[in-house]
Amino acid sequence: MAELDKTRTEVGVPDDWTYASAPESRDIVHLADRYGYYIGGEWLEPAETYETIAPRDEEPLAAVGQGTPDDVGRAVVAAREAFADGWSSLPGSERAKYLFRIARLLQERSREFAVLESLNGGKPIKESRDVDLPLAAAHFFYYAGWADKLEYAFPNRRPRPVGVAGQIIPWNFPLLMLAWKIAPALACGNTVVLKPAETTPLTALLFCDVLRQAELPPGVVNIVTGDGRTGAAIVEHEDVDKIAFTGSTEVGKAIQRHVAGTGKKLTLELGGKAANIVFDDAALDQAVEGIVNGIYFNQGHVCCAGSRLFVQESIYEPLVAKLERRLTTLRVGDPLDKNTDVGAINSAAQLEKIRELVASGVEEGAEIYQPPCVLPEKGYWFAPTVFTNVAQSYRIAQEEIFGPVLSVLTFRTPEEAVEKANNTPYGLSAGVWTEKGSRILWMAQRLRAGVVWANTFNRFDPGSPFGGYKESGFGREGGRHGLEPYLRFDE
Amino acid sequence: MAQAPALPAGFELPLEARLPRIGAVDAVALEERAASLAKRSIKREAKVLALLLAIRTTDLTTLEGSDTPGKAAAIASKALRPDPSDPSLPSCAAVCVYPNLVPAVRERVAGTSVKVAAVATGFPSGQYPTAVKVADVRATVELGADEIDMVIDRGAFLSGRYAKVYDEIVQVKEACGDAHLKVILETGELGTYDNVRRATLLSIAAGADFVKTSTGKIAPAATLPVALCMLEAIRDVYEETGRRVGFKAAGGIRQAKQAIQHLVLVHETLGSEWLTPQLYRLGASSLLNDILMQLRKERTGAYQSGDYFTLD
Fold this sequence. Notes:
The complex is a heterodimer of chains A (about 500) and B (about 300). Chain A folds into two domains: about 35-270 and about 470-490, Aldehyde Dehydrogenase, Chain A, domain 1; about 275-460, Aldehyde Dehydrogenase, Chain A, domain 2. Chain A is of the alpha/beta class. Chain A contains 15 helices and 20 strands. Chain A has helices at about 70-85, 90-110, 110-120, 125-145, 150-155, 175-185, 200-215, 230-235, 250-260, 285-295, 315-325, 350-365, 395-400, 415-420, 435-445; strands at about 35, 35-40, 40-45, 50-55, 60-65, 160, 165-170, 190-195, 220-225, 240-245, 265-270, 275-280, 310, 365-370, 385-390, 405-410, 430-435, 450-455, 475, 485-490. The N and C termini of chain A lie far apart (about 95 Å). The radius of gyration of chain A is 24 Å and the shape is globular. Chain B is globular. Chain B has about 300 residues and is of the alpha/beta class. The longest helix of chain B is centred in the C-terminal third of the chain and has 18 residues, at about 225-240. Chain B has a single domain (about 25-300), classed as TIM Barrel (Alpha-Beta Barrel). The chains are: A alpha/beta (about 500), B alpha/beta (about 300).
């Protein structure tokens, strides 16, 4: 055997191992130049359009219709006809078949939808792929299961559909919010006029193709795009029986004022300023993951985001140190890159709002931390931000920012944590981090929030009801509770 | 970082003045984090770099009753030059064998960067009197081992006799002399992540240079959540005391893809600083050929048959 070469050169390792870009291909998405309204199973040409863009680089994606009251009127007529023309009297088991079909089609086409969702909305592909799409399909599967069991869900109350539901959804989870709205409405035998958010209409428009594939009867689901004016036209239309709105508290209040006295049913899912409460016995590294997931998930564009972090004073320093270190590993960038953790801010207007509130935080005296990260020049971007030294009276501790901005506050005792957490006009969600089971239950009883997560955050399931206290709205979506807003009862 | 107010019962040990709080581990969230890191997409030049790094940090291992000097020498040659067709590839970090095979490996790797590692202390069970374990280590070091992979006494640990585990590690460390000490926790037998974290901190407090997941004789072994749990403990020690402790993932890592996932875990938990053979090791045997196959694929664009890679 020949003598081995024993003087080997060491292969140097670069100081930093940078991941090569790993973009998800967008070839799977085929966009039209122009989209109309999906009314009565057909595409109607819009009179006026606007451009919808990709927030990552402001690339124009397609022209979509700016729905007028007349367009909304046509959609409501189509929905009313479909309601009267058989959909409302169809046996539940038959309605379920359509919903199951839609769910399966969403699963089959999930990659296409995920790419489009990230393109039009700016959220990281890993989130649209692993969260938005699986949950949207799960909602249709879940409510398909209820369609023929409504009498068992509400025994002796003779549940019947409400009629035409007008649904207005936000831009943070465009397809998922569509699923939250449409699935229970159809399961209960209603027909729908839905308006996707102004900045994110494309997955809703692609969803119309799923409806076509599922052979849903024409007029059962109608989609009209446009801005707030289109939404107002839906709210104001006389022949709409039920309004479901997810969005800002300000708009929600306006809707509530308008609907008052009309007999229309109403559910509102509005803003939030959730408290994420970490006790000193919590598993710290996992709590840090939960805090990060709570506020930087979907760039903080989450109504139930854990935007107020309450830390027990005895662990304040190590926890903040761990959190800031963790922020340096967040990968901010192209939403279509599979390794991106934080994507683009949804719109110029939202970016402006975030900047304004962050500036107010600095001005009021809070200490700002942002990890070093290079933001792309084009598009709408904001670095993950942590504010420490925040007082309960600062605007950043009171107002919903709806961006990747966390305010850190402290507390000393469980009583104080509850008191501070509840001291907000909102009440959508809360998080509790502790190893002590009894304390979780004690806290959950006292926190005035629709959802209380224990040792986790931002976890959703179609079987679990979601909704708010106080100015976070009323009515529940998800679970058996989510059926009720779409039903009338003979009592 | 604040010092822990409460240590678990039975944990009264002569720990260093300042150690991170023992704390708790949440299993659900830990597994979730590990799973999300496993989804990192490592492509092209980043993948090649990771594969080369995996070779450089591998402890090429054979731990069989049937091992002979010939087999050990063959493994040593492979560690020195993993792919005869590509002399530009780096050597492995070490060869890991039973004590009796140390001289055979020593002879082959002397004068190179490849270290000789040997398992000791009644590997793999550790169910022997302390004196026997210490004698085992002394003899192994005398045979020429650069690194000692010891096992902790899981029987003592699980019955709450933490002090015995601690004292044993201290004695073994002393017996090692200049040899590097890797402490194997055998996480598959510890039952909970809380125990994994405790055993990690205990071993570090007692003087471990490295903490290592498993013997390779028990499944599950080096799962991603276990690795993450240990890396987080190492990070806490570093942040608290400035001391850098190494980590070795061993057992069940057979594919290049798994190795990359482990490297991502280290990269995003401790940073690039830990990605050197001085602070990170992968214990494996069949892994190496899969890495070579992946590297050849990156170079030529096609997967080659297994017959083009040596079996040693």
